[in-house]
Amino acid sequence: MVAARDKYLRETTPAGLKGDALEDAIAHKRSRMVVLATSMTHSSTKKAAIILGPVLAAALDSCRARGLEPFFLAATLGTTDTCAVDDFEGISSSLADFVPAGSPGEVWVHIDAAYAGAALVCPEVQEATKISLIDRFHSFDMNMHKWLLTNFDASCLFVRDREWFTRALTINQAVYSNTASDGGLVTDYREWQIPLGRRFRSLKIWFVMRSYGVKGLQAYIRRTTQLGEDFANWLRARPELFEILTGPSFALTVFRMVGGNTEESNVRTRKLCERVNATGKMWVTSTLLDGRFAIRMMTGVRTTEKEHVEAAFQTLAEIAEDVVKGT
Known about the structure:
By secondary structure, the chain is α/β, with parallel strands linked by helices. It has two domains: 2-147 and 155-200, 3-Layer(aba) Sandwich (Aspartate Aminotransferase, domain 2), CATH 3.40.640.10; 223-325, Aspartate Aminotransferase, domain 1 (Alpha-Beta Complex), CATH 3.90.1150.10. Helices cover 44% and strands 17% of the residues. The chain is built from twelve helices and nine strands. The chain has helices spanning 2-12, 19-30, 43-46, 56-65, 88-98, 123-129, 144-147, 163-169, 179-182, 202-236, 262-279, 306-325; strands at 33-37, 69-76, 108-112, 139-143, 155-159, 242-249, 252-257, 285-289, 292-298. The strands form two sheets. A five-stranded mixed sheet has the order 1-2-3-4-5. A four-stranded antiparallel sheet has the order 6-7-9-8. Helix 4 (56-65) runs parallel beside helix 5 and helix 11 (262-279) packs across helix 12. It is globular and about 75 Å long. Mean pLDDT is 89; it is low at 42-53.
């Protein structure tokens, strides 16, 4: 986001300004710059951004009418709550009508694929998500430690032009000067990030890729995704107890207990969640979707087998039956 802000300011601030005039122009423009994202974007984006409406075209028109200047859009491949995927084609089309790609002042589009990005090793997922449109966007990030068999932490960030980062984050101090850096013989990653130092993460990624290979990684993603399908099918077989709200998507199924109304369903589902976690046999997380309390069940773990998922469902079903009985 820092690089996007720097790029936007360089491209849209009037040329020829210097000194106080330049600082004043930048300060004025910064006061009108906004970030766009869906309501289900990752929490790290929410901490740094103003969240506008989910309909991009309407949000862009609203910004323009209010004199605001969108400079950064956080799109998501696999939202935290439900693993939903944003409409990349619609995003590209809406932005082209606002400021054409490649034009000065274009909106920087970052794709957050922290968890679900791992599934892109499978061609069918690439096609389904239309990730080929990524060449119209600016940056992409995914965490291999979340679903691609790598120990924490291993976040892979791709940017279309590394100069956007280095121009925003380079610090020219004599103490950092050296022949290799000055001659462009090495890549100084301190110029790609806010900290000066960084941990050595590439070796463990190399080991994973060499150990599993493309086919091995694809087989792992497909197997754990199928476990999610199996779990969802078991839920569907008990419609008197469960209702699927979203998924299965990227090995994640979001569901709740049925009830006479939303409030009753919320109470039942919350009790189910608390009692299941209290057993110590398994652990589920929860979310709130449009006022509906729901449970999130994820099967994307290397050691998880079908027998484990079936046992988890049986535990859920047994406790759900007790909740309905009021015991």
